[in-house]
Amino acid sequence: MERKKGNPSLRSVTRIRDPRHPGILIRVTELKRDGPLFAARQVNGKPRYQKLAPEVTWVSLGNTEKERRTEAEALALDLIERIATESDEEDEPGAPLTLGGLITRYETDGLHGRTERYRNGMLTSVKRVRDVLGPDLAVRDLKPSHVQRYLAHRTGVLVAGHRDLVSLSIVINWACGEKLLDVNPLSTKPLLKAMHSDHKPRRVVATPERYEKLKTVAGKLPPAFGVLLDLAWAAGHRVSAMLGSRDGEFAGLRWRDVSFKQTEEYPFGSIVWYRDVKADHKKHEHTLPMNQQASATLLRRAEKGMGDRAQASPAEGRDGGGRVD
Q1: Whether the predicted pLDDT of 86 surpasses 70
Q2: Is 86 helix (H, G, I), strand (E, B) or coil?
Q3: Do 151 and 54 reside in the same domain of the chain?
Q4: 177: closest CA among 45, 89, 23, 40?
């Protein structure tokens, strides 16, 4: 079977070697079409990518393919010279890897293939820890007192502080995989215990007073807000959940879940929430009554039909399958 080669749309110059340093083999390549060029090489059997600095693209190297290849080779040879002759104290035998050095290495070599959002979020988190504990702190010397000091510094944002330490642990695990460290100190029992958080999320509880305050401003907002507010109050759910922030109760509500049939138990009709859902600790199928305003508003929407996905009529009752949008 013929071996498949890489993405043919990406331009690269392979097997660039300096005779003076035969142990270093470099490939200059794009990682996305017309994106910045990277130098790729094998380190301890693993591929390592380093963006060329200053940043260049394939097109910026010259007007012809020959000029671009020549310039790419020249940049690679300069990099090989730096790699071979550069003296980095943190790479010397016995020199401990510091927080500052770890983050620098991770920023250069550990974020290949990650999105810009992931990259920015991860670096922001670990740099916050570095700024508090100090860039010269050896990673292997991390102690419970360091964790406690950082969490104390992040007073009022306990969860965010814990997440920053989790991000740092991810970076340290990467360093262990690169043979820069032997063990992740944040994975030891004393530090895990120090990182443990008893945080319990506080959810906003609907009260009659809160409901009335929201009702006073509902008239200034689009009519759908009033419907959501009434449904949320009747169902005992948060308005944000009704809007579809996560599970999206309202976003998943369909006309077949709405019944305008009036009974003693449901004088203004009812709604089946989470129909046919597999019950778990977060949600289960249940039927709750509508109040008068929610029933009247949904009835008007059903009669008028709101767009292509809300054409069901009240007569269809639970048989209508369109979304209540």
Answers
A1: no
A2: coil
A3: no
A4: 45
Instruction: Determine the straight-line distance between the first and last CA of the chain, rounded to whole angstroms.
Output: 53
Instruction: Report yes or no: 37 and 58 within 8 Å, Cβ to Cβ.
Output: yes
Q: List, for residues 243-256, the tens digit of each pLDDT value.
A: 444 444 555 667 88
Cβ atoms of residues 265 and 253 within 8 Å: no
Q: Spell 34-55 as b/e; 16+ CB within 10 A means b.
A: eebbbbbbeeeeeebbeebeee
pTM, whole model, 2 decimals?
0.47
Strands of the sheet with 46-51, listed across from one edge: 12-18, 21-30, 37-43, 46-51
Is the sign of the CA dihedral 56, 59, 64, 66 positive or negative?
A: positive
Range of the domain at 73: 12-86
- Reference 273, options 311, 229, 235; nearest CA is 235
Residue type at 30 in one-letter notation: E
Q: Into how many domains does the chain fold?
A: 3
Closest CA to 121 of 113, 131, 112, 111: 111
111 and 181 both lie in a single domain:
yes
Report phi then psi at 215, rounded to 5.
Answer: -65, -35
Integer Cα distance of 309 and 322 in angstroms: 5
As a residue count, the chain comes to 325
Asked if 236 and 150 sit in the same domain, the reply is no
290 touches 234 (CB < 8 A): yes
